[in-house]
């Protein structure tokens, strides 16, 4: 099972000629998750050949416009395309009140059915669970209530070593428990350790999305050992005072969070429009956390 992340928007509140506001798509087998929906998201979906009908779950981190102003346009287009499905939207409870008047003016009968799920803005919460994946929201530290999201593959059961079934004459009824972690006791009372009987599955894959937020060390425990971490780095280090004033992060603070959480790889984005060369962000963050990449629209990252 693989996770595939596509960057649709990498800028902060002010878009530029080549950087859109925040939006990402995370694809896992059988699911397509849209994370934030800044202005221009539907254009970027088309450019990246992502099928609109595959999007049935949208996660909105907070109600600053650069993270949701593209939502009404996306819903309108999906409706014009005749897409008939529920559209689950996870967000601050006020989002429904903000866009419902616009939904009321969409011409014709609505084929898309938006279903709003309010986030818990004070503590981590499992907001979606499928057979293969769970999604957890968690509060971050920003100038308004904001949540990050952790997408985590569910652990798979171990595989039993088939050749040992005959060796120890293991009954079919015991195989299920062995796969769950149990030892096996033979007919003559010998205990065979589970680690001898099984092949452990690969480590579950995970992706964490942290924007917008000031540097907030408690997040490290929530996203501990994540494979891929996206953490905002709105400002370079020389503007740390401005980052602290606006409750955003700098390049080195994002990198420090990657270190604290033992992340496998760090992606940085949500760049301030005042900076033209985002490679400078990458170079600065790598002074603290080597495996860092400044995201670029259209880039894909596979876990």
Provide key terms for this protein.
single chain; seven-stranded mixed beta sheet; 2 domains; alpha/beta; 303 residues; Metallo-beta-lactamase, Chain A; 28% strand; globular
Characterise the protein shown here.
Helix 9 packs across helix 10. Helix 7 links the parallel strand 14 and strand 15. A seven-stranded mixed beta sheet has the order 6-5-4-3-2-1-18. A seven-stranded mixed beta sheet has the order 7-8-9-14-15-16-17, covered by helices on one side. It has a two-stranded antiparallel ribbon with strand order 10-13. The mean pLDDT is 93. The protein is α/β, with parallel strands linked by helices. It starts with a strand and ends with a strand. It has two domains: 247 residues, Metallo-beta-lactamase, Chain A, CATH 3.60.15; 41 residues, no CATH class.
Number of domains: 2
Overall geometry comes to: globular
In spatial order, strands of the major sheet run 6-5-4-3-2-1-18
- Helical amount among residues, as a percent range? 25-40%
Helix and strand element order: EEEHEHEHEEEEEHHEEHEEHEHHEHEE
Chart the SSEs and their pairings:
Layout: E1 4-9, E2 23-28, E3 31-37, H1 41-47, E4 57-59, H2 71-80, E5 85-91, H3 94-104, E6 112-118, E7 125-129, E8 133-139, E9 147-153, E10 159-160, H4 162-167, H5 172-179, E11 184-185, E12 191-192, H6 194-197, E13 198-199, E14 206-210, H7 219-222, E15 228-232, H8 240-246, H9 251-261, E16 265-269, H10 279-286, E17 292-294, E18 300-302
Parallel strand pairs: 3-4, 4-5, 5-6, 14-15, 15-16, 16-17
Antiparallel strand pairs: 1-2, 1-18, 2-3, 7-8, 8-9, 9-14, 10-13, 11-12
Helix pairs in contact: 9-10
């Amino acid at each position: 099972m693989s996770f595939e992340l596509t960057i649709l928007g990498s800028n902060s509140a002010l878009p530029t000629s080549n950087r859109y506001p925040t939006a990402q798509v995370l694809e896992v087998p059988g699911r397509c998750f849209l994370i934030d929906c800044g202005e221009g998201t539907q254009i970027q979906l088309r450019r990246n050949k992502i099928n609109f009908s595959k999007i049935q779950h949208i996660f909105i981190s907070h109600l600053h416009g650069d993270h949701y102003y593209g939502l009404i346009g996306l819903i309108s287009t999906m409706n014009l395309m005749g897409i008939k499905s529920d559209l689950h939207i996870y967000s601050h409870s006020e989002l429904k009140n903000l866009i419902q008047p616009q939904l009321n003016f969409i011409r014709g009968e609505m084929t898309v059915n938006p279903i709003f799920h309010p986030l818990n803005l004070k503590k981590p919460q499992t907001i979606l669970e499928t057979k293969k994946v769970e999604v957890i929201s968690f509060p971050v530290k920003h100038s308004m209530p904001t949540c990050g999201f952790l997408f985590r593959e569910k652990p798979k059961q171990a595989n039993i070593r088939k050749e040992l079934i005959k060796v120890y004459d293991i009954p079919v009824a015991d195989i299920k428990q062995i796969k769950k972690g149990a030892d096996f006791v033979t007919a003559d009372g010998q205990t065979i350790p589970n680690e001898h009987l099984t092949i452990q599955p690969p480590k579950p894959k995970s992706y964490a999305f942290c924007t917008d937020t000031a540097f907030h060390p408690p997040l490290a425990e929530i996203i501990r050992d994540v494979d891929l971490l996206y953490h905002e780095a709105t400002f370079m280090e020389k503007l740390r005072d401005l980052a602290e004033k606006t409750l955003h992060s700098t390049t080195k603070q994002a990198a420090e969070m990657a270190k604290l959480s033992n992340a496998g790889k760090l992606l940085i984005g949500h760049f301030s429009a005042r900076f033209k060369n985002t490679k400078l962000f990458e170079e600065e963050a790598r002074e603290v956390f080597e495996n860092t990449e400044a995201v670029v629209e259209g880039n894909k990252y596979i876990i």
